[in-house]
Amino acid sequence: MSDCPIEAGFPVGYWHRLDDGRLQCDLCPRFCKLHDGQRGLCFVRGRQGNTMVLTTYGRSSGYCIDPIEKKPFNHFLPGSPVLSFGTAGCNLACKFCQNWDISKSREIDTLADEASPETIADVVQQRGCKSVAYTYNDPVIFHEYAIDVARACHAVGVRSVAVTAGYVCAEPRFEFYRDMDAANVDLKGFSETFYHKLTGGHLQPVLETLEYIKHETNVWLELTTLLIPGQNDSEQEINAMTQWVVEELGPDVPMHFTAFHPDWKMRDVPATPVSSLTRARQIAMQNGVRYAYTGNVRDEAGGSTYCHQCGIKLIGRDGYILSDWNLSDDGHCLSCGAVCAGVFQGPAGDWGAKRQPLQLQANSV
Fold first, then answer.
1. What is the C-alpha separation between 291 and 269, in angstroms, rounded?
2. What is the mean pLDDT of residues 110-137?
3. Which of 74, 104, 96 is nearest to 233 (CA)?
4. No. of H helices and E strands in the chain?
5. Alpha-carbon Rg of the chain, whole angstroms?
6. Which CATH number fits domain 59-303: 3.30.413.10, 3.30.70.141, 3.20.20.70, 1.10.1040.10?
7. Distance between CA 162 and CA 125 in Å, rounded?
8. Residue extents of the structural domains in the chain
């Protein structure tokens, strides 16, 4: 924790006062206990006087229109553009972080862009985006801002997707997912040892989040696991993980196995070979996962969607470019009529692999 001064911030909930005078943050299972002027491990939530504040409300590390498949979502409005943004900081301490320049940032200058929720809603509507994504760092820590943006976007018919590690407490989790339409949750590994050693967190709260989203909300759910050589890529662990997913979440939850590249505090670990991703995908499908994908590599077969009943290619993908499209407007296989689980709205979009950075200003579009 830091004892540096906190700039004026947005007052937030989910905290209480301890008997010793400290304030405990109750947003995530870290339960940071703060004296006046201290920030939590996430760096962006902290104590200012007798209240807790969010110091990054309305501020972002940047905005960009991406293909929805980049988040990754393969079963949520395929081919459509999504406005992506994040803030700074993170409530986990992953040694393998692939976005460390944002999530580990302790520089407020990282937050170069500023925009109100209403400004973001205006921009996504004018640019033809089907959704807005809270990504780059975990939206759990900018909870209030993400919810306000989601509500403003819903008012103009734009959906919200969360890209998150799922490390959040029950009460804020309930509030957050009331306003989300889809979530891609990082299931970073499937052992407590991995979570404790490499993320500074715990596995069980993440599993609880996954079960909550799947069974108690209407939020579309997909999972991502970054496979790290020698850490979470054993056949035993992947077998246990995928069996749990099928048994506890069901066979229709898509799983993405993505490639690690040496970064942050694990630069001495080699990049994930394609063979490891392919093996994980095969194990998942053998265990009953209907939609398993490879990511961060060029793999047309591993990136495409196939009918779980007749095997026809439903959605062809070469990188972020869609090719084959054998789905009805409401998501049925055109060959056998089986339902492809997901959120589909008419024919595929044609955004492709375009990446379009944007600059937003607080009071104008």
1. 29
2. 90
3. 96
4. 9, 20
5. 20
6. 3.20.20.70
7. 18
8. 10-54, 59-303
- In the chain, the amino acid numbered 4 is C
CA angle, 267 then 187 then 41, to 5°: 65
Is pTM beyond 0.90 here?
yes
The 10 Å Cβ neighbour count of residue 242 is 25
The confidence band for 7, taking pLDDT boundaries of 50, 70 and 90, is: low
Residue 149 dihedral angles phi and psi, to the nearest 5°: -65, -45
Are the C-beta atoms of residues 152 and 119 closer than 8 Å to each other? no
pLDDT in tens, 92-106: 999 888 765 655 545
- Structure-token match 């407020």, residue found: 108
> CA 142, CA 322: separation in Å to the nearest integer?
33
Query: What does the buried/exposed string (b/e) look like for 307-345 if buried means 16 or more CB atoms within 10 Å of the residue's CB?
Result: bbeeeebbbbbeebbbeeebbeeebbbeeeebebbbbbe
